[in-house]
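Batch job 17 of 40 flagged for manual review because the log was empty.
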Amino acid sequence: MAVGRFLDALSATTPDPGGGAVAALSVTLAAGLCAMTAGLSGRHLAAAERLAEQARLLRDRAAPLAQADAEAYRAVLAAMRARDGVGDALSQACAVPMQVAEIGTQVAGLAVAVAAEGNPAVRGDAITAALLAAAGARAAATLVRINLAGADGDGRPARAERLAAEAARLAAEAEQTAR
């Protein structure tokens, strides 16, 4: 979907795309920035090529999650309308934000490495990548917690929170490279 169409859809008074799609898109954009900054850091960072490739792979994993989240949420809405299977639909829908939180944390880790040792001319972009990745991971973790609020014994909310906290720690570490 073109960016303009996505923004129109996001701004419409419909329930999807929503926060999960935006979280996935944030992580996707962060991974793209990370790939770019690592790619421009070859003279400064021995692992630049490997980091850039990892970031591209994570970008490609995160990109389809925006659409997948919208589809999963549609299934939740259908279950709510039918008044049947809402808990199962919410549980299944959490698979996408869990992936977003995991990928976001991985991207933040790559970005902090580039911010710390990469090309100083793109340090701000690497820090931005870490911050976006952490924001996407935090948003995804919040969605998991909300969707599984009534699911006692499900360990995913706690795992998502740990991932988001690690991503935030990494983003703060990336920010420290600018000081």
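Reviewer: the log was empty due to a logging misconfiguration, but the result itself is present. The chain has a mean pLDDT of 95. Unflagging and moving on to job 18.
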